[in-house]
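Q: What would this chain look like folded?
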Amino acid sequence: MERKKILLRLDPVVHDALARWASDELRSTNSQIEFLLRRALSEAGRLPDGVGRMRPRGRPRKTPEDDEEEERERADGDASEAG
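A: My prediction, written as structure tokens:
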């Protein structure tokens, strides 16, 4: 499912406070806004059924495919240095 894009105008002081809060919780400012909106919807009993889960905060975990790709890149680098 494609995510909706919106233009959001904020008071600069509010934006700065959101950005600091997001940083403290290892989220982007955008993810922090979505987190807060979801929480507000849930508390108001207005969060729709079937809404997708948010990605966990912090860096995405490496997958086995990521490890294999890194190994291939290292091997390719070693081969090119030898030549």
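The chain is about 55% helix and 0% strand.
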